[in-house]
């Protein structure tokens, strides 16, 4: 029996974490939420998620910093980065570092679902 994919949601905004977790669960996936990149990094690396949705602007460790630390430690899985303050320079940097999607906030549920399903299906970055 196939294991249900786990989606990690890393965002310092509780409302965003809750709504993304509800969306992820409505698609039949398991959602694990973290209020910071530090919280996520404290989890054992052998239990990596199938995909991560992370905010860019977070205290202590930003989403793109979290992505860089995961890459540096060899932890590779699709990452969807979201931000209320999109910029071309950050978009180019995170996409070059392997992000699957870079979305502005708010994003439509359909847009998030499309990115998530493409990431889980192994399709290339958007």
From TrEMBL:
PROSITE patterns: RESPONSE_REGULATORY
One Pfam family it belongs to: Response_reg
UniProt keyword Zinc-finger present: no
Gene Ontology biological process terms, A to Z: phosphorelay signal transduction system
Domain Response regulatory: 6-120
PANTHER family per the UniProt record, alphabetical: CHEMOTAXIS TWO-COMPONENT RESPONSE REGULATOR (PTHR44591:SF25), STRESS RESPONSE REGULATOR PROTEIN 1 (PTHR44591)
Superkingdom, natural source: Bacteria
Residues that bear 4-aspartylphosphate: 55
Xref: SUPFAM superfamilies: CheY-like
Keywords, comma-separated and alphabetical: Phosphoprotein
The keyword Aminoacyl-tRNA synthetase is annotated on this UniProt entry: no
InterPro entries the record matches: Bact_response_regulator, CheY-like_superfamily, Sig_transdc_resp-reg_receiver
Protein name (database record): Response regulatory domain-containing protein
